[in-house]
Amino acid sequence: LTKVGAPLGNELRGPKMITCVVATGSDGYAVALSLAEVDPDFHANQIIVADAKDGQPLAKNGPYQLVVPDDKRPARWVHNLASIAVEQPH
User: Fold this and answer.
1) Which of 18, 52, 53, 80 is deepest in the core (most CB within 10 A)?
2) d(Cα 37, Cα 47) in Å, to the nearest integer?
3) ∠ CA(80), CA(86), CA(89), 5° rounding?
4) What pTM value is reported for the model?
5) Angstrom distance (rounded) from CA 69 to CA 85
6) What's the CA gap between 73 and 90, in Å, rounded?
7) How crowded is the C-beta side of 20, counted as CA atoms within 13 Å?
C-alpha cells in the first residue's frame, strides 16, 4: 500500500476515509475492504496475503490467498489472488 501511495496512518482522514482496497481472484471473485480495515493505525488485526499454510504452498488455493482473520465467515477470503487495487470513489 505504501508503494502505491495509499494514504495510511495520519494521512488517512477526511474524504480519504472512503478509499477501498479491492482484491480479485483469478476466477473474477472480488471483495472490497475499507482502507482503514487494512491500516494498522486503525485496525488491530492484520489482513494477510498468504503464500503458504503450515509451511506448505497453498496448492489449489494459491499461489496467493487473501485472508481476513476475524471474519465469522470466510466470504471475504480470496483464493488464487490475482490483483489488489486501491480505489477511491468519485
Assistant:
1) 80
2) 8
3) 125
4) 0.87
5) 20
6) 30
7) 11
The grid cell for 65 is 490467498
Alpha carbon distance 63, 57 (integer Å): 7
pLDDT tens for 65-86 read 999 988 899 899 999 999 999 9
Q: How far apart are CA 10 and CA 57, in angstroms?
A: 36
Q: For 8-43, how does the pLDDT look when each residue is reduced to its tens digit (9 = 90+)?
A: 999 999 999 999 999 999 999 999 999 999 998 998
Whole-Å CA distances, 80 to 5, 10, 30, 35, 52 = 25, 32, 11, 21, 12
* Contact partners, residue 80, CB within 8 Å, separation at least 6: 25, 26, 27, 61, 62, 63, 64, 65
